Amino acid sequence: MMAASMLRRDKKTTAALLKTELNRTDNSSGVRLLHELLDNVLNPEKPAADTEALEWCKCLLAGGEGFEEFCKTVRSYDNATLCGLVWTANFVAYRCRTCGISPCMSLCAECFNNGDHTGHDFNMFRSQAGGACDCGDSNVMRESGFCRRHRLKTGENVPTVPKDLLLMSEMVLPRFIVSIIQYLRDGYVEADSSAERDLAKVLQTLDPQISFLEELTKMGGAMRTVLTKILTNQQSFKELSMGQEDNAYAKKNYEKYLCALKSSGLVPAEEKGAGAAAVAGAGGAEAGATGGAASLSLLGATAAVSSEVSSKEEDQDGGQGVGQRKRVKLSSTTKDPSIMDTLKHKCFLEELLFWTIKYEFPQKMVTFLLNMLPDQDYKITFTKTFVQHYAFIMKTLMKSQESDTMSNRIVHISVQLFSNEELARHVTEECQLLDIMVTVLLYMMETCLVRSELQDEENSHHVVVNCGEALLKNNTYWPLVSDFINILSHQSVAKRFLEDHSLLMYWMSFVSFFQGMNLNKRELNEHVEFESQTYYAAFAAELEACAQPMWGLLTHCKVKETQEYTKTVVRYCLEALQLWFDNIGFVDEPAPNQVTFHLPLHRYYAMFLSKAVKCQGLDLDSLLPDQEMLMKIMVHPLQIQVSLSEIHSNMWVRNGLQIKGQAMTYVQSHFCNSMIDPDIYLLQVCASRLDPDYFISSVFERFKVVDLLTMASQHQNTVLDSEQERPMLEGALTFLVILSSLRIHLGMADDEILRAEMVSQLCMNDRTHSSLLDLIPENPNPKSGIVPGSCSFEDMLSAVADFKAPVFEPGGSMQQGMYTPQAKVWEKEFDPIMVILRTVYRRDVQSAMDRYAAFLKNSGTFSGNPWPPYKDRTPLHPCYRGLVRLLHCKTLHIVIFTLLYKIWMDHPNMSEHVLCMVLYLIELGLDNTVQDEEEEPCIEEHCHDSWFPGTSLLSNLHHVINFVRVRVPEREQESPPEVRRETPPSTSAESSPPSQNRRRLSGNWRENVREAQLFSLVAERRRKFQEIINRSSREANIAAATRPKSSSARWLPPGTSQNLAAQAAHGNNAGPQLVTEILEVRESMLSLLLKLHQKLSARPAPSLSAAAVEAVDAAAVAHGDGLTAIQRILGKAAARSRFSKRCIQDICGRQCPPVPPKKNSPGDKKSMDKEERRQRARERQQKLLAEFASRQKSFMETAMDVEAPDAEAGMDLESSEEASAEVLYDCVICGQSGPSTEERPTGLVVLLQASSVLGHRCRSDEPKRLPTTDEEKIYPEDTCGAASDVRLTHMQRHFKESSCLQSVSIGWDGGVYVQTCGHTLHIDCHKSYMESLRNDQVLQGFSVDKGEFTCPLCRQFANSVLPCKPGRSSEMTAWHMLPSNKPMHVLVKEVEDLQEQLGIFPTESNLSKEMESVIKDIKNTTQKKYQDYGKNPGSPDNDFLFMYSVARSNLELELVHRGGNLCCGGASAAAKRSCLNQLFHVLAMHMRLYSIDSAYNPWTRLTQLAHTKDEYCDEERPEVPMLFRDVPSLLIIFVLTMPQPLRKEHFMCMVKVLYTLQYTQALAALSIKFSPEERQAWSTSGALKKSMPNATKSWEALLSHLISELSNAKCIYDQPTEEASMLCSSVWSPQSIEFFLQQYCLPFLRLSSLLQHHLYGDNLTGCQVEEEFSMLAVSLGLMAPAAAAAPAPAPAPVSGAGNPVSSAACLEWAVSPFSLLPQWCSEVTCLPNTQAEQTVTLLLQDPVWASPRLLALPESYNTIFQHYHRKACTTCSKTPKDPALCLVCGAFVCLKGLCCKQQGICECVLHSQHCGAATGIFLLINASVIIIIRGHRFCLWGSVYLDAHGEEDRDLRRGKPLFLCAERYHVLEQQWVAHTFDHINKRWGPHYNGL
Length: 1891
Prior knowledge:
Blueprint: H1 2-8, H2 11-23, H3 28-41, H4 52-62, H5 67-75, E1 86-87, E2 92-96, H6 109-114, E3 122-126, E4 131-132, H7 148-151, H8 167-187, H9 195-217, H10 221-232, H11 234-241, H12 248-262, E5 280-281, E6 284-285, H13 293-303, H14 348-358, H15 363-371, H16 376-388, H17 390-399, H18 403-418, H19 421-431, H20 433-446, E7 449-451, E8 463-465, H21 470-473, H22 478-488, H23 491-499, H24 501-512, E9 520-521, H25 534-554, H26 563-584, E10 594-595, H27 600-615, H28 620-623, H29 627-648, H30 657-667, H31 676-689, H32 692-702, H33 722-741, H34 750-764, H35 769-775, H36 793-800, E11 801-804, E12 818-821, H37 823-829, H38 832-838, H39 842-858, H40 890-904, H41 912-927, H42 953-957, E13 961-969, H43 976-981, H44 1005-1009, H45 1017-1031, H46 1036-1042, H47 1057-1069, E14 1074-1083, H48 1085-1097, H49 1106-1110, H50 1122-1136, H51 1138-1151, H52 1162-1199, E15 1225-1226, E16 1233-1234, E17 1242-1251, H53 1280-1294, H54 1297-1300, E18 1311-1322, H55 1323-1335, E19 1349-1350, E20 1357-1358, E21 1360-1363, H56 1369-1375, H57 1384-1396, H58 1406-1421, H59 1436-1457, ...
Antiparallel strand pairs: 1-4, 2-3, 5-6, 7-8, 9-10, 11-12, 13-14, 15-16, 17-18, 17-21, 19-20, 22-23, 22-24, 24-25, 25-26, 26-29, 27-28
Helix pairs in contact: 1-3, 2-3, 2-4, 4-5, 4-8, 8-9, 8-10, 8-14, 9-15, 13-24, 15-18, 16-19, 17-18, 17-20, 18-22, 20-24, 22-25, 24-26, 25-27, 26-27, 27-31, 29-31, 29-33, 32-45, 33-41, 34-36, 34-38, 40-41, 40-48, 41-50, 48-50, 50-51, 57-65, 58-61, 59-61, 59-64, 64-65, 65-67, 65-70, 66-67, ...
């Protein structure tokens, strides 16, 4: 065989050979050869993992050249104009709403950054499901947003592809694709549990092949065209797909494929022949509707339309149970019944997609199919194929175990196809996309239908989805619904949908599956055992599957031209509703104790009605059904409103928390505009068209408060407990107020709605911008992100709110930028009704009222407790004028009258809220009059049960009602207390006090009967209902049959017939009989209002005069309490009607003269007293609270001034009472006060922490910048920690170890910082406290085992107790002794003698034990590496160094906290709560155990001349020269090793001596900085001054002496130093030298002053920065105060900073400097020349360091994000999942990265130990937040990057541009420097080394 020989040959040569063969004109032999070769290479029986085949294909495609070269060549012919980059989940992409046409548009980072989107509304987002870049696609986005590359359309002018380039590809690739398909066929196993694993394996082995295809797609347009040709070529599919006849393997595969195809249709194959395309589903025969009345009648309607309807077996008895669900044939109007059929494939693409679905959308396949989309031909074919497989996708999705992943992958594909309107329209026309989608959705839902239990459980024919099924619980339907919503957003597609009536009918039947789902039944006896959480699924399903498609359709019904669509939808809605009522067997009463929140049919109807009237100018009446239907429609939405009230009145409490969850979700911002708003609107429509008396009585009856509305003082309520009556009555009234005042759908423009929504949210609370965006319901399809109306969100926001920039509370909690309502909003626009409607939590209403009250108080408008303000409403749209009749109907007026009367009579269960709502209703009635009515009362019906003559509120207001018949329980007639309550009848009717509420009239009973009214809401409602029914007499007999009339005499709530009978029986036998009594009232609404005004004002005299009422100024009564409200109403009444005005005058006139009515019964007096007592109690409480608050405040100031340096601290430890009493300490645990003794020591609560803050200081004041490009780097060598390490290493190389360890301080990195809250406790009390914490099981944020605890008093975090040294304050005063006048040499000698004294070992006592344990704690605080700097770890020298360095670190840190200098004086909080004094005692006690060998005592070398010059240079390792030593370290060593207490004169003596050394070092460093010429010059000029009398105090003389001494060693001045070269340009003047010397010595002076302040309690006086040196010199006794104040002899030059003080004047030498300096210099000059370089480095030590700073961050967060989020980890070179940055040193680390784990510790924790001695500050790149690691704990600190509205964006969820907030970053830096992370951040948790 030729092919076999080819196989043995080199691949490249073979490929080249074949290519030439195929290029000939007659290429048949080449073709044959190629096929033979491919048969062999691509033999499907070879294992897929064999890579040989791939290698062959690559070579063949390249035709002999290298594959890489080939790729390059093909790419150069790329003609694509789209980007089309495909990404998978978690990819960071961008979306720009300004440029997007489709809401799903997205861009890759590269195209986004190369386009111009400045000022656009864009955001960055992390892709959930994957996506593709739309740059270049003008169907999806505007061209202005294209990036540079795709805007220029560079792809269009690419040369045509040479024919031979892709020739091989065209021949080889079809075979390659077939081989992939064969592997897929072969690997497929029918689904069972093991199948998934097998599928995954098959895919794994195919990975290289599919990746190869993907690689091909990335070669650009030319290769994609070839692939498209191959994938869509039907001929080659026919030839290759069957497999060759002789190949048994291929045949077997083909059969497997056919078998897999069989189950792909929605219809089982065996039924296909009969032509009955019936439904197939998850389990074979598909479950349809139960007795499916809904679907079946629908099918009846479509039967005529459909051409291929087969006879259906429709036995509609509904007898079968849910188990054997009926199979339903859903006829379809599609021309092509193939939706249901088994799939048939005509090309490779179709089969590839088929397997992609079968294998549940493997990521690689999806990416390959999507990468091809830039090819237009492919896009169209692929979309059609996708649609053809749509039903199959749904079936696979429902079976899938991983439905979540699969859903994401489906949407990843479909969103690319359906977002394009052209394409969507094309497929809708050609492939019936809409029919397919609706059918598929119907089928899907039919798999989980159950019979509805709403209304009539037994006979219901309605079916609903079962929310407990996985399909709904896991949102499995969302990919299909989301596609449907997506295509409905295209106008052309939506129009087709709205024109297709059969589709609309289907859709309504789909929607009706959700109508009444998730029914709640009220538990009456015991608490429900299991709280189901299915309600989440129900709400999500209604929102996604019903509401969002509805909003999508509504967006296309906005103009007059689309009227027909709306009419059609409304018609079908009504039909579906009618059908639903029939199916659930609904007549006119809802079943008791049931509620469903899901009425999507009602809501469709409502929203289309609203649109029709608002946008399309349709007449409302033309769209409404008859009255009877309206009555039915109103029932269920009203039932929901009642249930909301019941739930808040705790009537559903036995149903568990989930029922509250439903009530809250129903009004929540994402749902309200699709749920409660349409419901209320529908009720408004019903109210405007039904008889108002019927409507009002229905409301009160449904709210179950009918029994309460009696004028009798007692009543029986058969359905409510007495504590539920009040909230239910409030609910009913509030509902009526909302109903009559809400205008969202009744005439408000979009802008007004947005404004009202915004105001109501802002009034509840200040809001951040993002939460406001989230809380305001979006009107259109929620995906669009476009707020309707002309006014944008931002403009509206700036019109109603003020921005409050983010502030910082002293506690350190981070505030976000907030928006708060403007004053005019509170004054004019605050609408409590809107607030009530929009609150999820009832407490928000209260919050809004509190804020309103606070505003009124601050603005001085009203100081009391205000009532909700009344707000004028937008005028009603003319269609809804009927709504006003509600306010003008007798029933409502009777209710209002009754309630006013009850409130005035103090009946039980009335409340302020009830009165408030009643007044609101009256006022609404006065403001909305019915136009056609005259104000004069018309004398119409005078029948005996009519209370009022007419319906107008204005005329009824002043109508007096004389007698009322009431029903009261019988026994009251005999009960003596009742009788007693009544006052004897008085003769004059006018002036009789109204408290005679119940006169029994015996004689003249007959005459009064005609006037007295008995009113029963129920009877009223029945009457009206009957009228309506009779009017349409169709169902009159049914109604009569089902409902027994309850006589109007008996008041019982309506219920089912059995219920009524039972209650009647019960009422007659057991309960007291109700009898009728007549009550004399003689009041009108106006008189009641006036009396209530008087009652509220609590004045004996009438509180209003008629004149006052008329003169009411509208603005004056806009805000206030009940009094204001009544005044306002009376004013309006008087202004609008002469009658009312006259009545008010009469009543006011009448009320004036007589005794105030409410003074005669003792009960009233009691209530008065009660009121007064209440008032007093309230005042007392206020006073107590105020006192408590001020105490708390003062405590906070004393104990907690963590961030407030000015606050005085609670306990001045160095209390300087002059008395010689011992210092007393308060123990915060046992509360006793006493001294600290050896046996029972007291201790300070302290926190010990390791700190590297000092080590991170740099020379320059400018912080280092965070690198944001690859070129930038950070060098750590110039930090204080690094410099001191280098210095110590240099010394240890040449000098004696023990001497080295006393010549420097360590602790710059990993030093121990000690801080206290200032509270003390007995050490034994502390131990028992720790014990109790150990036993406390509550989860604490700290680890008791590590000794951590919180201070028992102020709860500050701590981990040790520092013992207080026992002592008398008299000793303290000894320390304070004024400096004596002993001469210098005496003091020097005394100091030397003191140093010679041996350390006294302390006696063993509790105190000494505690001191040792604290030392141990201090050592354990930091890591070992920070303690052992010596060559032999653990040696005494090492220990000694560590101890004195602890003191040094704490002093240095205090300096840093004071701002780096001592100019601010002593008022620093740090000093107040400093524990340095106690710390020194503990360290001193420990260090006294080491004595310094006197031979090596540095003191002698400082104060005496050595005998011989050379003894020093003998030893093999000399001691460290004095000029190299760190002077502050020496001071601390001296202080700590000398006997305590140290006298102040000795301390000052040491400072003077050490100052001379420090000064000399300064001169040495200066001399090195000179250029040789300058050195010469200064040396000469100084030599002349040596002979002057005060030469020892002249720096010139000393400098010249020093230069000459150091010149002995030639090498020192010959070393080139970089400073010298830098400074050569500037010339040293005397002033600049003086300035240099002072700056050099300042750090030492500051440290000494601070030490003196702590040891002797000296005050630090504040001063200007320029005067700091002289101030410190005076306080340390280096200079007399007079000298410092000496006036400057001449104006000082700039460099001297105006400081006339000479630093040399402070020198006081113990020995003549001219003999001492040579000695010190010789120590340096006798060092070998080889060390010259180090010598210079050591001489040049610069003690000046800038304050520690964190890195400077870039302004925009995007800079950091783009540079770091794709950056590879240094350890494993992968991109970390959670990259982080150290803000102290800029290191890039992996958070939680396993790759970088060492010994079980993750990288961030490791880095925090290395860089910050266990304190780390990390910025998480992908979340923009900062985390703090402190030891074994961590906390989320917050973010220093905020968006334009001052908000954090944690996890970059919103993806808005973020900018650095300098204030926040400063706070972070402060907390780092001040070591207050532990105190300020409250939420700590353990990290278990896992960060």
